[in-house]
Amino acid sequence: MVDENLAQNDIKALVTAIEQDADNWRAYVDLVNVLAATENLIEAEELALKSLNLFEQNDEAHEHLLYATGNVYYLAGDFNNANRFFKEVTNHHLQHDATMMQAQSWYNQKNFNQALVYGLTGVEQVPKDEAAQIMLGNIWLSLNDLEHAKGAFNQALVVNEKNFDANFGRGLIAAVEGQLENEWLDNAKEINHEKYQQQAQQLDDLTQLLNGRIDE
Q1: Cα(48)–Cα(43) distance, integer angstroms
Q2: Phi–psi pair at 143, nearest 5 degrees
Q3: Cα-atom radius of gyration of the chain, to the nearest Å?
């Protein structure tokens, strides 16, 4: 949750920084991000598009602003526009994050085959990114490919055996395979009992859904 008072202070400080130096592109990026995080999405969009024009000739600035703009549209639920900007990002330091944001955007639209393309690319870029492996595992689950999903969650657990989502996903697969009581679900419950309880119904629903698909 964003602290509104702190956010307002950040906004004021960033506006001042821009007024003092109109070429301070990092202040523009940060201001877009703060506006988006505080759900001032119209203002964030306007500033992002304006900034892209202002810094069109500055490659580093333009790349960071492309990513920030994509994030604004993502938070607004406009996944097509989000992907349009993420796709333009070529900066080495930003490209992996932009790739995974595209995977997430397609996943949110339930276009799992497109999500898979970006998810696979993302883990090729940074194999030890546990969040990317978990995203890929969820995509494989949505495509009813339990073996590939298991592999992705296992890879995430190699990176961080205490990751809740990796344990929960791996435990879900084990439950579908008949191991209703398994070490991964036990681990997830121990790591974050409250989150586990919140997802308990999801566990039941997904188990029934996946079992139904397997029986078809």
Answers
A1: 8
A2: -90, 5
A3: 20
In order of 1, 43, 75, 79, 211, the CA distances from 48 in angstroms are 23, 8, 14, 16, 45
Angle ∠(133,90,15) on CA atoms, nearest 5: 100
Q: Output the CA angle 18-19-21, nearest 5 degrees.
A: 60
For residue 104, the number of C-alpha atoms closer than 13 Å in the C-beta half-sphere is 20
- Tell me the longest C-alpha to C-alpha distance in the chain: 65
Separation of alpha carbons 152 and 140, rounded Å? 8
* pLDDT per residue as tens digits for the range 105-150: 999 999 999 999 999 999 999 999 999 999 999 999 999 999 999 9
* Residue-by-residue DSSP string for the chain: ---HHHHHHHHHHHHHHHHH-TT-HHHHHHHHHHHHHTT-HHHHHHHHHHHHHHTTT-HHHHHHHHHHHHHHHHHTT-HHHHHHHHTT---HHHHHHHHHHHHHHHHHTT-HHHHHHHHHHHHHH-TT-HHHHHHHHHHHHHTT-HHHHHHHHHHHHHH-TT-HHHHHHHHHHHHHTT-SS-HHHHHHHHH-HHHHHHTHHHHHHHHHHHHHHHH-
Closest CA to 199 of 170, 172, 160, 179: 172
Integer angstrom CA distances of residue 66 from 15, 31, 38, 82, 134: 20, 14, 19, 9, 25
| This prediction's pTM | 0.89
Question: Mind listing the pLDDT tens digit for each residue in 142-181?
Answer: 999 999 999 999 999 999 999 999 999 999 999 888 887 8
